Amino acid sequence: MCFSDINPLSETCPMDTPNAIDHMFFYFAKVEDPRRPHATRLHSLEAILLITILGTICGAHNWVEIEQWGQSRRAWLCEFLHLPHGIPSHDTFGRVFALLDPESLHQAFVAWMSALAQLGQEIMALDGKTIRRSLDRADGKGPIHVVSAWASRNELVLAQFKVDAKSNKITALPELLALLNLEGNVVTIDAMGCQVEIARQIIDQGGEYVLSLKENQPNLYEDCVALFTWLKGPHTLDEKIVLGADEQVDGGHGRVETRQVWCTSGLDGVVSCERWPGLRSLVMVEAPRHIGGQDEVEQRYSISSLPGATDTDATRLNGVIRTHWEIENRVHWVLDVAMAEDSNRTRKGESAQNLALIRKLALNLLRRETSVQTGLAAKQKRAGWDHNYLLKILAQT
To answer: What residue stretches are annotated with the Transposase IS4-like domain (predicted)?
Structure first.
């Protein structure tokens, strides 16, 4: 049974349902109820989902806290939800989310985020994160690992994909990419995603790529290091050099970092580049650091389908590579610090994956609400105190 089979509104005041609530019901209308059709259902699926989403936006981290939040807001929730048996118990929340098909919930999430996003000239960073306390020793299951897609300009997590316990991140990436509209956008992935088939899929879907290069591609890596060593060395006048450069200086917290970026599209004769679809440039980032009186130099390499022949190209590539790390700082770190994801012990069935998606939904909506200029944690508190502000967060269009 799905939402469309049940009247989600309170029987006493259907005309007073806030537009923001109607908006959310629209996207989650086709989520399938995992409970047996003839089983006794004291609480509708829409009530369970809605209370979970609202409670998470307001800072509830687990099923007990979500139940407590619902109890504290029961009178308000009854204005637009039919709750004849009150607020579901934490056991009910946990049981339903453990059974809920992640794909069904994810389709609703992707539909909503796709409606919010304005893609084109976007940088999409793909990266994975382990939810450490989701391991279930009783069932012999390790913690789940989820790969997410972050759209920098839109400031949205667009989709997530759980890595199969018997597989790894490489096999999850193609399935995550298939969910995304890559036309006119640049995809960035760490060295795990530096694979020929990944590059081909991105190009086939109309996108561009910047992939981190390490020793897991030994021939290409060695050729890249040798090429930049030669390009930066002394040359005779008759040698044709194709090399773009950019430099940025950052400082703060007792640390000064100067990032120098070189790129080249002069790949003729580099045999290891020939099998990579769409490959147009190699990139080297050199970051000397001065920390506590000590000098350090780090060199990192990438391959890209973007041009890399001029200083302007180098500036663009520098920005794209730096933007990739936003997924660590603006998604993974925030999920752990503001939403306590790493310490969350939800683990039964599909509940860890499903609740991880709800947290990303809450993160997206909280970040898009910009009328209150405070941090995310402060927004969560205000949403818990002020129903009107909570509805404003929910009504993102």
So the answer is: 120-365
Place of tokens 């609703």: 108
**DSSP states of 266-327:** --TT-GGGTTSTT--EEEEEEEEEEETTEEEEEEEEEEESS--SSHHHHHHHHHHHHHHTHI
CA dist., res. 172 & res. 166, Å (int):
11
Instruction: Judge if 121 and 67 occupy the same domain.
Output: no
Q: In what order do the strands lie in the sheet with 294-304?
A: 156-162, 145-151, 123-130, 186-189, 208-213, 294-304, 281-291, 255-264, 244-252
- The residue behind tokens 């997530």 is 160
Task: Measure Cα distances from 295 to 30, 249, 286, 366 in Å.
Answer: 57, 15, 13, 40
- Span 340-382, pLDDT tens digits: 898 888 888 999 999 999 999 999 999 999 998 899 999 999 9
Q: Which range marks the domain in which residue 390 is found?
A: 3-101+369-394
Q: Which two tokens stand for residue 251?
A: 């400082």
For residue 356, give the nearest of 181, 172, 163 by alpha carbon. Answer: 163
